Amino acid sequence: MIPYGRQSIDNADIQSVVDILTSDFLTQGPAVPAFEQALASYCNVPYAVAVNSATSALHIACLALEVKPGDRVWTSPISFVASANCALYCGATVDFVDVEPDTGLMSVKALAAKLQQAAANNTLPKVLIAVHLAGHSCAMQQIATLCQPYDIRIIEDASHSIGGSYLQQKDGQPQKIGSCQFSDITVFSFHPVKIITTAEGGMALTKDLTLVTRMQLFRSHGITRNPNDMTEISHGPWYYQQVELGLNYRMTELQAALGLSQLSRLDTFIAKRLDAVARYQVLLQDLPLDLPDECPAGQSAWHLYIIRLHDENRRLAVFEALRSSGIGVNVHYIPIHTQPYYQQLGFQWGDFPQAEAFYSRIISLPLYADLTPEQQQQVATALQSACKE
Ligand SMILES: *Cc1c(COP(=O)(O)O)cnc(C)c1O
Q1: What are the distances in angstroms from CA 188 to CA 54, 204, 206, 303, 331?
Q2: Do 23 and 97 share a structural domain?
Q3: pLDDT by residue (tens digit) across 217-246?
Q4: pTM given for the model
Q5: CA-nearest residue, atom 6 of ligand 1
Q6: CATH number (domain holding residue 316)
Q7: Secondary element (H or E) of residue 253
Q8: Which of 108, 164, 272, 278 has a CB 3.0–4.6 Å from the CB of 301, allowing a cystine?
Q9: How wide is the angle at C-alpha 143 spanned by C-alphas 73 and 47, nearest 5°?
């Protein structure tokens, strides 16, 4: 089976993990801050907090932004459930903004209309979570401009888009996703299907010292060792205080060492993904389906290659034919609001028509750094015959 996504592990990755095993620290040592600093520097952002998953990063991002019961958080229905669940963990209410029919990215028009209505009804969100589906940046400049008058805080769920960049430049340089140019916090995932991996892992990046301090607190039990944050004089060198109800979301040294090693090849991974995309665009051009467009808002990291069949009634048959030819296709994503848990909260089919229409046509084809031209030819041949059947 050719999977839809897969990690790329080389000998340097393996050695970096093995070295940790015989070092002094398996957790809470120097590798985690080294990985944080390296990624912050790659993204040109001051602060980064490494955690054990992007789900955890989204959770501490919401906690740092003081998302609470009674607050609203908006996100995209075309995402992994974690993009919405993080708000529910904080007791907030989730709502969704419909997507663009061609890209599945949050629609700026839908957002503008929804904000206007919410302003009139006094139901504005505290936080908006923009999702860079497939590695394509949302129209962040427009989204930030729309949110700014209402003081809505922005989180970018950039789980798909590490290594990508925005179109908008700063000081003549294209800004990497993660620079937080248009957001308070940006979150990355290092799950093995994502662009770089730490097995499980995630990172939250920010320009804001208050937010990074709060995220560090929530990552580790809500415990501080900084005397300035304590409510009484320190009892001695052993002393710490729990000042918030935090969690244990820490990343291990093994994961951080793997992450550092992977980060050194991030640009190579992106270049290989771009080559594979260029090959697909040629191989698949005459089929009864729409190929993904280039990202209008910057350079995509191309986490996913999502095709849209012209005939939604053919999706199941084409999907099954591909799977039985050994092509590990997938669908990204089932609209979150249609999940039973979300239906229980009051959502139903029909609530976000563009997201549902997008969902009905899509298939994600295999795309990863080590995918070979021969494998891509195999995918193309299988897809061609699946479309004919
Ligand atoms: C993978 C993913 C997550 C969750 O990442 P984990 O590291 O597995 O917790 C969240 N949001 C999106 C968009 C994702 O693709």
Answers
A1: 6, 7, 12, 12, 20
A2: yes
A3: 999 999 999 998 899 999 999 999 999 999
A4: 0.97
A5: 54
A6: 3.90.1150.10
A7: helix 253-263
A8: 164
A9: 75
Q: pLDDT per residue over 102-131, tens digit each? A: 999 999 999 999 999 999 999 999 999 999
- Whether 239 and 317 map to the same domain: the answer is no
Q: Which two tokens stand for residue 194?
A: 């994502």
Q: In what order do the strands lie in the sheet with 305-309?
A: 289-290, 305-309, 362-365
DSSP structure class, residue 4: S
Per residue in 303-340, pLDDT tens?
Answer: 999 999 999 999 999 999 999 999 999 999 999 999 99
Q: Which atom of ligand 1 is nearest to the CA of 193?
A: 1
Write down the pLDDT at residue 349. Answer: 98
**Final residue of a structural domain among 204, 234, 263:** 263
Each residue's pLDDT tens digit, 165-208? 997 777 777 899 999 999 999 999 999 999 999 999 999 999 99
Whether residue 121 is found in the same domain as residue 256: yes
The answer to whether residues 236 and 297 belong to one domain is: no
Q: Is 82 in the pocket of ligand 1 (CB under 6 A)?
A: yes
Number of folded domains in the chain?
A: 2
Q: Which of 49, 52, 55 to mutate to test the pocket of ligand 1 (most atoms within 8 A of CB)?
A: 55
Record the tokens describing residue 136, joined without a space: 């394509």
Mode of pairing for the β-strands spanning 202-206 and 241-242: unpaired
Tell me the CA–centroid distance for residue 41 and ligand 1, in Å.
22
Separation of CA 81 and ligand 1 centre (Å): 8
Domain range enclosing 120: 2-263
Residues 279 and 238 in one domain: no
Which ligand 1 atom sits closest to the C-alpha of 57? 9
Radius of gyration of the chain (CA): 21
Q: Does 84 lie in the same domain as 51?
A: yes
Both 129 and 243 in one domain: the answer is yes
Ligand 1 atom nearest to 53, measured from its CA: 7
Same structural domain for residues 173 and 236?
A: yes
